[in-house]
Amino acid sequence: MFRIIEKLLDKQFVSHEHLENISGSKAGSKSSIKQLKGRVCNIAEDQKPVKYINTSFITRIISGEPISVEEKGTTDTFKPVATMLFSVNEVIDFKETGKFITDRLLVVPFNNTFTDDNNNRIIDIGNKLCKDLPLQIIATKSIIAFLKVLKNGKFTIPKSVEEATKRYFMESSNVVEFCNLFKIKTFIGKTAYYQKYDAWCHKNFYEPLNNAQFGKQVLALGYRSERFSFDGDRPWYYVSHSFDSDNRFNIYQDFKRQQDTLDFETYLCKQFDNEAKVDDTQNTEDEQTTQEEQKPDDEQTISDNT
């Protein structure tokens, strides 16, 4: 795929900077970002996991924001227009889960293998597709498809890409995975939610983040932080983005009506656990239904992902 793109664009308009070169080894270190000037595409094949990623650079590159580069005592400012393409076999941890990262990246799965009539893998498929006739066909189809994009005003993202992107960021952050498994429907104490996360991490052999890092990622997922007052206590809570804070008193009244010795925080945790069990049961049923529906169409599904 990358060879085709580079062949269509011409090498002078393509750069090959990996994340570690763009970001530098640490904050403030030398970056190769200037290599993107005048390029329309950046292709980095076999991108390996890196220790440090300058997410500020990455998001600004993707958004096309002006970037200043110092060289030989002078400062040059340019607007990057290069589409960033990376091929990966391992999950890259971007250290962030906010929408400013997840909304700017898409994961396109390449699951198929090209074979000949004898079911042998075609190892020189790249060379075959980069000949004049195949390139002309690919370019024509690309132009037709882009005209539809211009007409619709946006790209159509296939469901397979949306699902692959979601799975990718869940794998790159155990906080995202935890929050997707244990969604906050109303609100829950910050301390209690972190304790549940910490216990879940140890149960699944994950390395938990500290409380501050955990809180930052939870808020980046769209939850909000609020302090509610109940009978003189004013603890902090994580609150669902769809929850009306005025309804907190209804939940507290439900708690007061319970013939139970639980305190309010424990009551919230119990309600949260019950909702999580219901969601888990529903998700299991949905997965089984989806698998049953897909069984007759396995060959078509594979074809659609090509």
Written overview of the protein:
- By secondary structure, the protein is mainly alpha-helical.
- The chain has two domains: 2-168, Rossmann fold (3-Layer(aba) Sandwich); 182-272, Arc Repressor Mutant, subunit A (Orthogonal Bundle).
- Helices cover 48% and strands 12% of the residues.
- The strands form three sheets. The chain has a three-stranded parallel beta sheet.
- Helix 7 (159-172) packs across helix 8.
- The chain starts with a helix and ends with a helix.
Question: What is the secondary structure topology, with strand pairs?
Answer:
Blueprint: H1 2-9, E1 14-15, H2 19-23, E2 41-47, H3 55-63, E3 67-71, E4 74-78, E5 83-88, H4 99-102, H5 125-129, H6 132-152, H7 159-172, H8 174-181, E6 187-189, H9 190-203, H10 211-220, E7 224-227, E8 236-239, H11 248-257, H12 264-294, H13 298-304
Parallel strand pairs: 1-2, 2-5
Antiparallel strand pairs: 3-4, 6-8, 7-8
Helix pairs in contact: 7-8
* Spatial order of the strands forming the largest sheet: 1-2-5
What is the second-level CATH architecture of the largest domain? Answer: 3-Layer(aba) Sandwich
Radius of gyration: 25 Å
Count of domains: 2
Report low-confidence residues grouped into runs of 5 or more: 282-291, 293-306
By helix and strand content, what is the structural category? mainly alpha
Question: Gap between N and C termini, in Å?
Answer: 11 Å
- What about the largest sheet? 3 strands, parallel
Q: Approximately what portion of the residues adopt beta-strand conformation?
A: 5-15%
- Which whole number gives the mean pLDDT? 81
Net shape: elongated
Helical fraction: 40-55%
| DSSP strand count | 8
